[in-house]
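Workshop exercise sheet. Pairs work together: one partner reads the sequence aloud, the other fills in the structure field after running the prediction. Swap roles for the next sheet.
Pair: D.N. / O.F.
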Amino acid sequence: MAYHLPVLATESIDALAIAPDGIYVDATFGGGGHSRLILDKLGPKGRLLGFDQDEDALANVPDDERFTFAHHNFRFLKRFLRLHGIREVHGILADLGVSSHQLDVAERGFSYRFEANLDMRMNQQGEKSAAVLLNTYEPEALQEVFSKYGEVRNARSLAQRIFAERHHRPIQTIGEFVGIVEPLIRGNRARYLSQVFQALRIEVNDEMGALQEFLEQSLEVLRPGGRIAIIAYHSVEDRMVKNFLKAGNVEGKQEKDYYGNINRPINVLTKKAVQPSEEEIARNPRARSAKLRVGEKVGS
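Structure field:
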């Protein structure tokens, strides 16, 4: 079983305009697919750093002296680069999708398709699993999670049902949780459950908080003319990425100088997000919702 097929591989690697002797970051190493393609374009003096907090990703680290692996969340980008004496890099790539490996290993608890404990932690050392979240959050907090991160239309009803059911017994397994959710499903079952599980995963791993920290730090460590390429999969994270490339912050707030001129720290190179071809989607259906956005740091 493939760990993960790299999505928009050619498009994202080409977007980085890799210099053979440059320093690059693969912020979401995973199965190493994108990293191997970057290494193929680097010369003997080039350097690549890969980030991943998942223990399972360690098995994919290439035996290549040009590659350095950081077993950390990409929210620690600047700290780790500083640790290795690197002040600036030529390019950064991030594929924000959950890997096929994580989805297909039942015990990780990411998918409603399997029976397992409700886990969803990308970092197995993390304290807050999906089960802990479901059994401790107040209804208002649960509603916000499902509404904000899953865009679940009946988030309030779902939160109230979870709150009521957990008083009978703790919610521990995927099967128990799906049984609670089932009566509230509206429309397409697979889509509804995907939205609910997506919302839980994002909250468990603080994905939006980590993404914001990573984006802000990436602007600091990119050299002038350096490029950042990010692949997003759902509207919440794609909106953050789009705002960041447009304004240099995830809120999309345009900052002006003393004379009223808009400060644009990044040139957006993708006016419209790049999406997978029909051929790629046929090979890898999970690529369907992928959107690639690319920017270049202003300066020379």
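Discussion prompt: The radius of gyration is 20 Å. What would you look at next?
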